[in-house]
Specification:
The complex is a heterodimer of chains A (109) and B (112). By secondary structure, chain A is mainly beta. Helix content of chain A is 0%, strand content 58%. Chain A is built from no helices and eleven strands. In chain A, strands 2, 4, 5, 9, 10 and 11 form a six-stranded mixed β-sheet that branches. Chain A has a five-stranded antiparallel β-sheet with strand order 1-3-8-7-6, with no helix packed on it. In chain A, a hairpin with a 6-residue loop joins strand 4 (31-37) and strand 5 (44-49). Chain B is mainly β and 112 residues long. Helices cover 0% and strands 53% of the residues of chain B. In chain B, the strands form two sheets. In chain B, strands 2, 4, 5, 6, 9, 10 and 11 form a seven-stranded mixed β-sheet that branches. In chain B, a hairpin with a 6-residue loop joins strand 5 and strand 6. The radius of gyration of chain B is 13 Å and the shape is globular. Classes of the chains: A mainly beta (109), B mainly beta (112). Chain A binds chain B through residues 1, 31, 33, 35, 41-45, 48, 88, 90, 92, 96-97, 99-102, and chain B through 41-45, 59, 92, 99-106.
Chain lengths: 109, 112
């Protein structure tokens, strides 16, 4: 079946450093979504990308959808302690939304 | 977006017992889902709760173990039956808003 993998699994950074997580799907996607889950919390929707090669920005966060619509990335510039959490991509194929394996980000002050 | 509440927020249960989790949404939604998130893991879809008909289960999940009710467009329940320690997880109710998913706060279940 469809699989969505993310790397790295964990990332520890010093506050102010940049961070990137990569998401790869085994199948072509109609769209990709990103969610953030704070420790002890539930996943919260961040953004959806639909078009091939699409790039969207939210303040310090930059999201990109690959040309083949099978991969995506999330880049955070100058991380802050409030960025701590697990970031999940979720790929949609027909009516199924498959969550990636997640990247846990820890930011040290 | 919808506001989603779940009850209970957490529970500790004995092996062999059953627990019913409730999910309430503040507006009518067509699609409701139940996910499981084991410790440190990603989200796995258990089933789609269909209003007025039987839930649609994903591979590896069966109705006898996870019976689901969906009596109307704002409410659903998930029962975890005959629990074992392997069922210890966070169970999340989710609704679809277009293609997006919004999640309830989750129910943290520990089975002893």
């Amino acid at each position: 079946g469809q699989q969505v993998m993310q790397i790295p699994q964990y990332q520890h950074v010093q506050e102010g450093e940049d961070f990137t997580t990569y998401c790869n799907s085994s199948t072509t996607l109609s769209n990709i979504q990103w969610y953030k889950q704070r420790p002890g919390g539930h996943p919260v929707f961040l953004i959806q990308l639909v078009k091939s090669g699409e790039v969207k920005k939210q303040k310090r966060l930059t999201f990109q959808f690959g040309e083949a619509k099978k991969n995506s990335s999330l880049h955070i510039t100058a991380t802050q302690t409030t960025d701590v959490g697990t970031y999940f991509c979720a790929g949609q194929n027909t009516d199924k939304l498959i969550f990636g394996t997640g990247t846990r980000l820890q930011v040290f002050p | 977006s919808a506001v989603i509440s779940q009850k209970p927020s957490r529970d500790i249960c004995q092996r062999g017992t059953s627990l019913t989790i409730q999910c309430q949404v503040d507006s009518q939604v067509t699609m409701m889902f139940w996910y499981r998130q084991q410790p440190g893991q990603s989200l796995t879809l258990i089933a789609t709760a269909n209003q007025g008909s039987e839930a649609t289960y994903e591979s590896g999940f069966v109705i006898d173990k996870f019976p689901i009710s969906r009596p109307n467009l704002t409410f659903s329940t998930l029962t975890v039956s005959n629990m074992s320690p392997e069922d210890s997880s966070i169970y999340l109710c989710s609704v679809a808003w277009g293609s997006l998913r919004f999640f309830g706060p989750g129910t943290r279940l520990t089975v002893l």
